[in-house]
Every structure is written in C-alpha cells, then in structure tokens.
Amino acid sequence: MSTTLNKMSVTLGQKQYHIALTPEDIGEYVLLPGDPARSDIAAKYLDNAELKANNREHRTFTGHYKGIRVSVTSTGMGCPSATIAAEELINIGAKTLIRIGSSAALDPRVQIGDLMITIGAMKNEGTSRFYVPQGFPAVPDLELTSELIYTAREMTRGTDFSVYTGITSSDDAFYGETPEFLDKLRSYKVMNLDMESSALYTVAHLRGVRAATINGTSGNLTNAEVIYTKKNERLHDAWEKEIQIVLETIYRMEQRKAAESRRGRR
Predict the structure, then answer these.
(1) What pLDDT is attached to residue 210?
(2) In the chain, which stretches have pLDDT less than 50?
(3) pLDDT value, residue 159
(4) CA 132 to chain centre
(5) pTM of this prediction exceeds 0.85
(6) Alpha-carbon torsion, ordered 17, 23, 29, 31, to 10 deg
(7) Residue 266: its pLDDT value, please?
(8) Residue 225: CB partners within 8 Å, gap ≥ 6?
(9) What is the model's pLDDT at position 229?
(10) Contact (CB, 8 A) for 215 and 118
C-alpha cells in the first residue's frame, strides 16, 4: 500500500494551510479578486461582512447578499496562487468560484473600463499541465456564465460600460508578452489576457464545482491604450460594476434553483 501523502484528503474539511479558513468561515459562493485590497471593495456590497482571514495574499470576507451567504477571497497574481486558493476553498465547501479581475484587451473594440466575460481560456501557463494534458480545454461553467452574460448586459444597458465575450489567453509572464506573441494571439481572435482563468477552470472542472470569470479592462494592447503610472479611474469603476453584476448573478441563480425545487415538489 502506498504511503505517499495526499494533501487534499489530509486537510479535507479542516483549516486550510494557505487561506487560513475553515468550513464555517465561507459561503458556497466565493468571489475571487487577485488583489487583496479588492476583497475590501467587494465586502462593501455584503451585509454584515466579517474579515475571516488575512494570510499571505489571501484576504477573505464573508457576509450576505439578499440573504445569500457569500465570501470573497483574494488569490494573488497568477495561476499557481489562484489554484491554491481554489483548491483550498473547494476543500472546505465552496461550490461556485467567480473571478472578478482586471485584464488587458486585444480586441480593438474594447475600451478601458469595459467588461469582458470569458467563454473559454487558452492555457499559456504551466499550472494546468499538472492536472490535465495540454490539449484538454479550459472552459467555464455554461449555466453560470450564461447567467453572468445576461445579467451584465442588463445591468449595463444605458450606461457607458460595454460588455464583451470571447476567448481569454491566461499567461504566466506579464513582461514576457512580446509584440510577436501578442500578434499571434491576435491572429487567433483572442479577446484579452489574464493570468488565472485557464487554471481556475481546470481545477473547478476536476473538482466538480462551477467557475466563471468577468474582468474589467485595464488597457488595450492593440490600441496601445494603457495606464501604468497613475490611478486608472475607469478600471476602478469597472471593478465596482463587475462586483455588483456578480452578486446579482448569484442571487438570480439562487432564485432559479428555488423555483425549480418548488416545481419538483408539486
């Protein structure tokens, strides 16, 4: 019999090593910003939000939105850190993980502050290869993403936010994205770049939970529209808007589940 340690089974349902959380600390729905400071922004929209843990890059609040228990845990930057957070959250009961991030656009139509929802991710990163072959797709949950798209379009109608959907390239090296590399992605009609979605989708699929991504646009690399040296006001507005959209998506998912349950009892 093998005595090799199984990290997941040893810590299942226990306090988790990196995120420092227990099953009692979180809801089944968890928002995943990268930046720990963005956890505080999301917490503003939750009733009775409590700081549950602040360990390494993982800052977690839990509260309620329209009666639904919701948590927000920052993942830090990149797939390795994001998958550690995802694995540990799933290990203590998370069922739905939604990345609320920022991302650079390649689609020339997309402007700073617009919202981009990922319908599939290209795995230009190494973390997913520990889990699945390179040819295995990285896709979000269909039902969750469809509701997210519908809600985003409804909640931005008549505003100066536009909503785009498309393929995201998840990359490991922020400064390794050369002009030649970006040209190749552009030829594939890739919408945008992030550093987490493909691995998040891979882990969620293997662990049997739902995942989706919505990103605020930080800049457009095709149009050379970037803001690196001062506060990006439009991006901050996009963070606020995407948090509102995700929370309302969660509420609608729960409403639909309750309606289906009632029909099933008839």
Answers:
(1) 98
(2) none
(3) 96
(4) 20
(5) yes
(6) -30
(7) 63
(8) 111, 112, 219
(9) 86
(10) yes
- Bridge partner residues of 212 (DSSP): 98
Q: What is the pLDDT of residue 261?
A: 79
Place of tokens 């795995």: 123
Cα–Cα distance for residue pair 97/95, rounded to 1 Å: 7
Please name the amino acid found at residue 147.
Answer: E
- Among 71, 63, 77, which residue's Cα sits nearest to residue 89? 71
Beta bridge partners of 169: 122, 193
Place of tokens 């503003």: 44
213, 200 contact by CB (below 8 A):
yes
The CA distances from residue 59 to 28, 64, 68, in Å, are 17, 17, 20
**What residue has token string 């691995």?**
199
Q: Give dist(CA 155, CA 208) in Å, integer.
A: 29
Predicted pLDDT of residue 184: 97
Q: Which two tokens stand for residue 253?
A: 């998912």
Q: Is 156 exposed, middle or buried (0-12, 13-18, 19+ CB in 10 A)?
A: middle
What is the C-alpha separation between 211 and 29, in angstroms, rounded?
A: 10
